[in-house]
Amino acid sequence: MMADTSTEQLYNNRLKGKVAIVTASTDGIGFATAKRFAQEGAKVVISSRHQKNVDRAISQLTKEGLGENVVGTVCHVAKADDRKRIFNEALKLGGPHILVSNAAVNPAMCHITECSESIWDKIFEVNVKASFLLAKEAHTYFQRNGGGRIIFMSSLAGYILSRLLGHYSVSKTALISLAKAIANDVASDNITVNCIAPGYIPTKFSNTAAKWEPLQRTVLTNIPLKRFGTTDDVAGVATFLASDDSSYITGETIVVGGGLASRL
């Protein structure tokens, strides 16, 4: 007899009854994470800076039978009013209980000593400051709800520096430290704070940020598992960190890098 591969059999409803916010979640890793959360029973607030992206993602998830589990809104994480909006959407659903801070920018590739002040400020405003402010806001709601999960999307670049991505790498290293700092401060509130550091995952963002084609020729041979990662690889780890299965893990970073060395 063939195995039953229906959605009910593939997923365990580990997030049933939870409400999750996933920023920058209409494409790539963010979309895969939001989709997996919905498949696991969560209500999910997805977001993008552009309404057309939100509409497209909601339409896709609806076609896949997940429409009742997702809502969407415009959110530029560097804007206070937009951050407030996504929390208000989560409140309408009875949450929030989970925050995945996934939004990131990398406006230029250059040597770090050539990085302009405006580029530096933009990277840290979106990649680090916004993550801090989202976590700070989430803390307030999680206290009321008896606990929660905060997940920062860092990067293997936070461990392995590239000469042309040094400014981006520093921002991602900062998230690893930020997770540890906040985790220590909120542990008594039954809140865990962890990071995920994806390695080489083909997405629109990574292709723009790191010129994917040359990487295919030069990096793959160094990955022990001999393949690039997928957005679903990252989403699976995010689901684990968002679930009760990870309740005794906090202040840590899980590298999803196919075995590449990753130490600060």
From TrEMBL:
What's one GO MF term for it? carbonyl reductase (NADPH) activity
Q: Does the keyword Oxidoreductase apply?
A: yes
Per UniProt, the keywords (alphabetical) are: Oxidoreductase
> Pfam families per the record?
adh_short_C2
Top-level division of the source organism's lineage: Eukaryota
Q: Could you confirm whether the keyword Amino-acid biosynthesis appears in this record?
A: no
Family to which the UniProt record says this protein belongs: Belongs to the short-chain dehydrogenases/reductases (SDR) family.
| Classification via NCBIfam families | PRK07231.1
Task: Please state what the protein is called.
Answer: Dehydrogenase/reductase SDR family member 4
Give the organism the record lists: Pyrocoelia pectoralis
